[in-house]
Amino acid sequence: MPTGVVLNPDHSAENTVDDAIGQARRAYDAGVRQLWLAQMADIDAIALAGLIGAAVPGLGVGTSVVPINPRHPLLISAAAQTAQAASHGQFSLGLGLGAPDVEQAVFGMRWSNTITRLREHLTVLRSIFDTGVVDFDGSEISTHPQWPISVGGGTPIPIYVAAMGPKALRITGELADGTLPYLAGPKTLEQFIVPTITAAAAGRPAPRIIAMVPVLVTDDVDAGRRWAAEQLAFYETIPSYQKVIAREGVDGVVDLAAVGSAAEVTKHLQRHLDAGATDVVLSPMRRAPGDAEANWAVAAGL
Questions:
Q1: Between 20 and 30 A from 79 (CA), which of 149, 186, 198, 225?
Q2: CB 63 within 8 A of CB 94
Q3: Which of 157, 61, 196, 176 shows the shortest CA–CA distance to 118?
Q4: What's the confidence (pLDDT) of residue 41?
């Protein structure tokens, strides 16, 4: 999998989907071969990935990430298979466990037993993707569809989970194809994520470790770091990211971002690969003062 870039659709555009497809075409022309889309409350990431994949042949598309709540895995599988057929085998499904406080604010609900839900969600998806059928009863999820659940024209869909805790990593190693950790620095990758998921995947194909790194290509490093610190401050309130900050031994979350010239950003990303990541993804912060083309050039040259 080539170095990827997260695409941020322009919500001020006359047509956001047309704008995203236009961005994807320009990124592909610049040498980018893998784009990732985040699930927000407006644009549906899986649907948009399928549309982009159909419009830009040869471009890999994926979601980073679609939370497992509140959608049932049967609905996730239907959307993912459709996107895979539309993109002619270029789609990757990235899932996230979600954040309870965010889910409470957005959906008015909280889902307990997160680790059990993750295992059952992946079990259902694995059955559908691997065999085309599913008949499952769990403590959190059940499904017994009485109709076909395979989409013609699709191919096997890789599943990645934004897992960073030990239990989530072990389940991901057992049932998924890799992990999509965001803000996990080199120490966390080398000392914790890589050995944990690799051990859990024993006997299966080696898992991909796709490090998602917030980036800002700029010549004004001090101003860029101040801006990035403001944009990333939210993550310092989430326990899983607090653990990453502590494990890395840095002062704050901004120290985990790649901020600087193209050469400096490239060097920062390379440290993740040296620590055991199989892939890196440039994740531009929303409303970043930099330009997308600078990120595309870094991704194409890494």
A1: 198
A2: yes
A3: 176
A4: 87
Which class for 19: exposed (0-12), middle (13-18), buried (19 or more C-beta within 10 A)?
middle
The Cα–Cα gap between 53 and 32 comes to: 13
Low-confidence ranges of the chain (pLDDT < 50): none
pLDDT at residue 291, rounded to an integer: 81
Which pLDDT score, from 0 to 100, does residue 288 have? 63
Report pLDDT digits (tens) over 13-34: 999 999 999 999 999 999 999 9
Q: Is the dihedral of CA 230, 188, 100, 144 positive or negative?
A: positive
pLDDT tens readout for residues 66-94: 999 999 999 999 999 999 999 999 999 99
Residue 82 Ramachandran class (φ > 0 left, ψ -120 to 50 alpha, else beta) = alpha
Query: Strands 34-37, 142-143: parallel, antiparallel or unpaired by DSSP?
Result: unpaired
How far is the C-alpha of 41 from the C-alpha of 295, rounded, in Å? Answer: 25
Three-state SS at 293: helix
The whole-number pLDDT of residue 239 equals 83
Q: Evaluate whether 175 touches 123 at the Cβ level (below 8 Å).
A: yes
Neighbour count for residue 70 (Cβ, 10 Å): 12
Where exactly are the structural domains of the chain? 1-162
Using CA atoms of 222, 294, 270, 95 in order, give the dihedral in degrees to the nearest 10. Answer: 100
The span from the CA of 103 to the CA of 163, in Å, is: 17
Q: Which tokens belong to 271?
A: 């440290």
